DNA sequence: GTCTATAATTCGATAGAC
DNA sequence: GTCTATCGAATTATAGAC
């Protein structure tokens, strides 16, 4: 199964990536994908067994792309707490929801092939946060009683929960306020320098 | 339109409440609702114009029920920071997702009648957290640089994001760790007494 | 490898008897 | 107020020509 030289396969995956972000998994039909990609029925079922596998391929690409962006924010060279703040305050389209995390409540998460890329993406961010916070802790910049692991978990939760708040209130400011709170908390439990 | 004396109407709404939590809005069909409630086609469309209105009635009841539970946790009599901790650490079924917040990424949120109960529920929790934190602030128990508003937003975001993490990793512990982090942060920015 | 045509099922909703 | 029967459209997938 060649992954190169097939124009329609790439168009199908690209269309699926866009639709999964816009509508999620259940609300995206093969028909929608074909319409947006300009491919015919046969192309999709020639390259993939069915809808699930198309989505799995699209999600894998989405996770890879987003992890690369996140890795840019966590690149060495800047102090660890600056990297954490850079992640928290990066630009986001709050109302569109998290490109991968938005699938959390779909039945798709019962399919390992669909859950894995999403888990890998969020797990990678959490690990990056934890590593930076451990560096800060080693440099004596973390208040006693604050553990890097739970703090990292709380921070990624603020981001994913911030998307939920923005969507539910239909207001970008709802997410900004939650992130503001996280930034204030981080400042309160850290000392400059590291 | 009598809201009493109609046995099937109540059965339909009860079944819808269960299905919205289990599967969400788009994945719940009128057929599913009728099967679970034991009602026939005609009963649903006699009592409601269609699927959207059944869901709106179910969500309104769900929000009312959950708000009553939350109000119990925030009842006066206990110190404000104890109320906040009680909310953070209350028992939850992490893998089932937030009964209302789980709809955040569905197209249902574009319908005001469906978005409103969800927004009212999360807004009520956030307001209760903010009020308790303001009390603590007035008693001098909040660190300087920590504002009750953003802190309340961050805390409710940790809860909603915690559900996302648990679902995506399919692990209750993922949510517990995020809440642990929030509890550690809260302890670090408050003083006992208030 | 790509296309069109079509199948079997489910979707949300309506008709009309009782 | 409740039921069964049914509709037209959409769903995921298959068949088979080119």
UniProtKB/TrEMBL annotation, chains A, B:
Chain ranges of the HTH tetR-type domain: 6-66
The keyword Lipid biosynthesis is assigned to this record: no
One MF annotation (Gene Ontology) recorded for this entry: DNA binding
DNA-binding region(s) in UniProt: 29-48
Family annotation (InterPro entries): Homeodomain-like_sf, HTH_TetR, Tet_transcr_reg_TetR-rel_C_sf, TetR_C
SUPFAM superfamilies: Homeodomain-like (SSF46689), Tetracyclin repressor-like, C-terminal domain (SSF48498)
PROSITE patterns linked to this entry: HTH_TETR_2 (PS50977)
The entry's keywords: DNA-binding, Transcription, Transcription regulation
Stated name of the protein: TetR family transcriptional regulator
Lineage: Bacteria, Pseudomonadati, Pseudomonadota, Alphaproteobacteria, Hyphomicrobiales
């Amino acid at each position: 199964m060649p992954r190169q030289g097939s124009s329609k396969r790439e168009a199908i995956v690209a269309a699926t990536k866009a639709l999964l972000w816009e509508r999620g998994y259940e609300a995206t039909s093969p028909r929608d994908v074909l319409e947006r990609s300009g491919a015919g029925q046969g192309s999709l079922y020639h390259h993939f067994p069915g809808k699930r596998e198309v989505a799995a391929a699209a999600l894998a690409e989405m996770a890879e792309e987003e992890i690369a962006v996140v890795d840019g924010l966590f690149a060495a060279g800047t102090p660890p707490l600056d990297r954490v703040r850079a992640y928290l305050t990066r630009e986001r389209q709050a109302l569109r929801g998290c490109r991968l995390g938005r699938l959390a409540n779909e039945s798709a998460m019962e399919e390992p092939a669909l859950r894995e890329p999403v888990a890998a993406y969020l797990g990678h961010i959490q690990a990056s946060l934890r590593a930076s916070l451990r560096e800060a802790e080693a440099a004596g910049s973390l208040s006693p009683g604050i553990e890097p692991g739970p703090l990292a978990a709380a921070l990624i939760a603020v981001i994913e929960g911030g998307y939920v708040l923005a969507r539910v209130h239909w207001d970008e400011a709802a997410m900004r306020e939650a992130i503001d709170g996280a930034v204030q908390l981080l400042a309160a439990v850290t000392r400059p320098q590291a």
